[in-house]
Design goal:
Chain lengths: ~240, ~210
């Protein structure tokens, strides 16, 4: 594997953002069991275009995120392709954690806990968004990489959190299909009853050029059309 | 369908303060005061009604599909479902539902997502996202403010294997859903013009809106 252009380990319970150039691959690797990575995606050069989870799921007939699905934007363009993963299920139905999910763990503050203070994914995502001139209006349904909420075929559509779905070393690779802003939080999944956040290693490398048999291009007609649209956003 | 429970409403349409019909493919925006009840009637059956709610005092405190399904532990909406915001505030509660279940994971159609799903020939077909933006503009709801909506009367079954499909609706002529506003709300509706899948029974039709407050 080629040397990473960028390598950064995000501790558990923290937030981070990175601009990834189109044609490069972002690899996220869990450094501990039960990792969660609530991830937002934006088209870097468009004021509002961002990940649209419902469009991504319905176009590819899936209630989970898995390789080689294409992560699609509001404008029907591919932002990233999931080129590979050691896990076949990443949650996208649950959103990110909010302050209300931290109440069960008791009070926490910088003053009392210094940098081990507990902050929700929302607090972290907003903290990063503000650095890019964005704010609450830019929040959208995230992908919780390394998280799983099992679906069911029953009449209620019962959803069940699966604890510790990921182990240390589990990974996912995202190929940027245009320049993208990735904003992420490593706070625990909102349905995780424990506060034991694991870290995530982020690495960026050049991605191999997708050939005619690229799994994301050949996955479904819908995936290919979104990938084609990504190449046409700047004519 | 097994396990689907329906709940009727005692509210009388003849004393409603709001009573209007929204044509197929048209939209609607109104304020519902806290405590008010708002009913959507599927006049002809199998009509998807794409709906967003906003805290009228704070547009950023908008309906959130993912917060709603996570906190209720089920993917579908029905009577008793609390419709939550991105701040996990209860915006509204479904108080009556004679259909039985509604989707909130399928999102809205857009010209661009129609191209992805059905091909280039659908690019200039009318779509919900355009209606949302047109009707929302008056109160400051633009593209940044569009969250992921509810599709009343639409059926998007999940499978235990993590599959998701659009299926024929469970609705029928005259079925309705009613919500109670838990704070002052904007309701923004696109009466879906989609022609390319069964969400409108392949034939979009008008819906009736009723309000009591």
């Amino acid at each position: 594997m080629s040397e990473a252009l960028l390598s950064h380990e995000i501790p558990g319970g923290a937030a981070w953002s990175v601009l990834v150039r189109g044609g490069r691959e972002l690899k996220l690797t869990a450094t501990g069991a039960g990792a969660n990575c609530s991830t937002l995606l934006f088209a870097a050069h468009h004021p509002v275009d961002r990940l649209n989870v419902p469009d991504t799921l319905k176009a590819q007939m899936s209630a989970r995120i898995h390789a080689p699905m294409v992560l699609m934007s509001d404008r029907g363009t591919a932002l990233c392709s999931v080129t590979g993963s050691s896990l076949d299920w990443h949650d996208a139905l649950s959103g990110h954690s909010c302050d209300v999910h931290l109440e069960q763990f008791g009070p926490s503050s910088y003053s009392a806990d210094r940098n081990a203070w507990r902050r929700s994914a929302r607090a972290g995502l907003l903290s990063e968004l503000r650095k890019h001139g964005r704010g609450p209006a830019d929040l959208h349904a995230c992908v919780n990489f390394f998280g799983k909420v099992a679906t069911s075929g029953d009449a209620a559509g019962t959803l069940t959190f699966v604890p510790a779905h990921a182990s240390a070393g589990d990974w996912v690779t995202l190929r940027a299909e245009m320049d993208v802003l990735v904003v992420l939080s490593t706070a625990p999944h909102p349905l995780d009853p424990r506060w034991d956040p694991a870290g995530v290693l982020a690495e960026v490398r050049p991605a191999p050029d997708p050939g005619p048999h690229d799994p994301s291009w050949t996955f479904r007609d819908e995936s290919a059309r979104a990938l084609r649209a990504a190449r046409e956003v700047l004519a | 369908m097994t396990g689907v429970v329906t709940v009727g409403s005692g509210l009388d349409p003849t004393v409603a303060v709001l009573d209007t019909t929204v044509a197929d493919g048209d939209g609607f925006l109104a304020t519902i005061p806290a405590g008010g009840s708002f009913r959507i009637v599927d006049l002809h059956g199998n009509q998807a009604v794409d709906t967003l709610f906003y805290d009228a005092a704070d547009l950023d405190n908008r309906y959130s599909a993912m917060d709603t399904v996570r906190e209720q532990g089920r993917a579908y909406l029905t009577a008793g479902s609390r419709l939550l915001s991105v701040n996990v505030d209860v915006l509204a509660t479904i108080t009556a539902d004679t259909c039985g279940r509604h989707d909130t994971l399928g999102g809205a159609c857009a010209q661009e997502s129609n191209v992805v799903r059905y091909g280039e020939h659908t690019r200039h077909q009318h779509a919900c996202r355009e209606t949302f933006l047109r009707y929302g503009e008056r109160v400051g709801i633009g593209a940044r403010q569009l969250g992921h909506n509810i599709n009343f009367f639409m059926n998007v079954p999940l499978t235990a294997e993590g599959g998701l499909t659009f299926a024929d609706g469970l609705s029928a002529p005259g079925k309705y859903v009613e919500v109670r506003a838990e704070r002052d709300l904007y309701v923004l509706i696109s009466n879906c013009p989609q022609l390319n899948n069964p969400c409108n029974g392949w034939n979009p039709t008008p819906v009736r809106l009723l309000g009591w407050w």
